[in-house]
């Protein structure tokens, strides 16, 4: 028993010696070793070498205390690893939402720990690209969805209109004041028949063009759109694989040569 205790003491002393070695390679080997105990990893998390701290930051077994330390690291790559780490605390993720480097902030939005509290912090961020990344999350809190629907970024609202499965959000976005946003809603296959009917009569050719190439429509709307005042709408209708044959026959008689050419293409 005494020998075992002595061996443990010697092993610990060796670890401490290596952790404070002047040789970076020695300390790096410890940082990368899966068997290195937590107390040594905690010491290496404040190592003067950026290389060592980066090696620590990508470990999968880090404690929240160590991650908290690394979240304030001067090195962007270290903080980026913390922002992506699934064990990083909510508090640290919220702090990293305000990080000066965009790549660190963007990692937060992809973190599995990005819960509704972190999402709200992201919604309040001036970083449009960071807010944009929330659009692709499937676990958005209802109030976060509402905030994104009201976001100042047209590009964000347009992408949300295309991606969202939230019926309330889709209804609001399909009636957005900006045509690009309504066009996003027009290509969302979750729109209702009534929403499609309204979009088929939209004042913007951009919206109607998006609609005809993305979703199935009622016969009345198909007939109207095949004779749409916009060449662009008719051209996209002639191009769309979902356009029924009898509508394509109408487009083959179109007054515009480019529309006729598309409608007559044998690949359709």
UniProtKB/TrEMBL annotation:
Gene3D superfamilies xrefs: Leucine-rich Repeat Variant (1.25.10.10)
InterPro entries in UniProt: ARM-like, ARM-type_fold, LRR_variant
Pfam family name, one: LRV
Name the record gives this protein: Leucine rich repeat (LRR) protein
